[in-house]
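Quick question, first post here. What does this chain look like in 3D?
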Amino acid sequence: MPGLSRRQFLVHSALLAAATGLAPSILGPKLRDLVPASEVPSTLLQTIRQGAVVSGKYRRLTTGPGEPYIPRLDVLGRAPGSGRAASRRSLLYLGHLSDLHVIDAQSPARIEPMIVQDHSAWGSAFHPQDPLSVHATAAMVSAFSDARFSPLTGAPMGAAIVTGDSADMHSSLELRWYIDLMDGLPVSAASGGAGFHGVQAWQEAQWAYRPGDPSGGAFGDYGFPRIPDLLAQAIAKPVESVGLPAPWYAVYGNHDTLLLGTFGLTTQMRALAVGGSKSHTLEGTATDMLGGYAASGGVLQQAVDALGLAFGRRGFTSVPANPERFLFEQREFMAEHFVTEAAPGPVGHGFTQHNLESGETWWKADLTPGIRLFGLDTCNSVAGPDGAVPDVQFKWLEAELQKAQAEHKLVLISSHHNSLTLENRAKRPGSSEVLHGADEFVAMLLRYPAVVAWLNGHTHLNQILAHRTQGASEQAGGFWEITTASCIDFPQQQQVVELVDNRDGTLSVFTTVLDHASPAVPGSSGSVSDLASRSRELASNDWAETPLMRLGSPLDRNTELLLPAPFDLSSVTDADLEAQQLVARARIAAYEEARGL
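> Answer (accepted):
Ran it through. Tokens below.
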């Protein structure tokens, strides 16, 4: 199939120059020049692994060799064609981010003491690297910028999807930070004004990692280092972000739905979030939370709780209040995505005016003329971290999949929860709502061969599962479920995904893992990259979890996931794809010009 003629290329270039405002002399070379795939930073070139013990049991990180793509045939069910590498063409190259967990580590509503004294429960309430989450996220955005062209085909990034758990503690300030980092705006983590006001700066909180003096507690005993300047560096200056290089879309995670991803919001917790009192003891936090839930229906008790917040309680320390920390409502999560930069867009990031008016929290978007993305809300808004698919959303999606199949659209599904965590059927008393679990959901997706991949997160690890239809091998098919890791827990990795037509009746979905743009061994400069590197190192030493397990196996990282093409793709011409990529290249050229890249 021929691509664009010279005349067509020139016409497209002129139109794109007018649309981007770039002079043809600047845009023209950027549309023609191809970035060598071998120069795109990714784990194909280098990996980061645990290194030697430096103190007690505390380990530094080190670099290792890159990992090549591993073909997986679980869905295809037969040997692939040997000549596919020479004939393949890129249909879409996109970024996949999940579980950013942007954290305001000084917030009074960050209930760190819920980890309990031995750090073995409620681990997600506290991490030694909490004050560095904005730096790790900014460094991850830089990694996507560095990989704005495919390390496989050189195709430009056409879109990105964020599959939930963006604002860690349901804080409006965290929500704003995450959107600004995606958009390329600076973020200041100094939410409490001058100085760091939180448990990691307080001698009383010996159960926490206190970088100024970790002695006397479990972290010091383990060998966590003394870094006197760390907290000051974390809030010293705004964190700069280069922003994502492509339009990005978002869905809800359980942390964007419930407090700590598990609890409903109470009047007590709302007051605590914006107040000037922060707990540093388990007793104070537990009493506060349990009292708030018990008092949810009692006006008198709520008044007593409010007085406690105002005048102080045992186990609490006074901190600067910040009204921007208020706990957002469900629709406010969607509405905040409309407060965004025009580029890279789109305004709403998947959510539409219909979502704001109806309260529906799911959406669809065409990423290309031939590829449709569905954004689902699998979160349970009653209680619990895991999810399910409400019947109204289930039926909507099935009707939409019927349309996509008839229109010969390839389909990507995005959600926060994965097939191992879709069994939460908690309901409010008297509710007749039907909630669908993983078995029903996967069976429904398998009825539509147009579905090629399901992108999700939640479990903070790299994992790829094959979902295959039953039948004779020549009739086999199915889709791939791709779960990415998080930006808060080790290995602090995300991924890029590329859909490729092999032109032999098969598709390949390539997954490439990205480390955030920071060195394996942190420096002491206080730069974003050094602090992000420190965040990853601290996360790799979490003894209460199993950090190395979250890497996944080699079959869960850099892979070629093969499957049968659900319909004839020859109707998508090379000229169509070239024109599509010219638009993405022009958008990236404008991005590079604006950021001096």
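Residues 46-357+452-566 form one domain.
Residues 15 and 365 are 24 Å apart (CA to CA).
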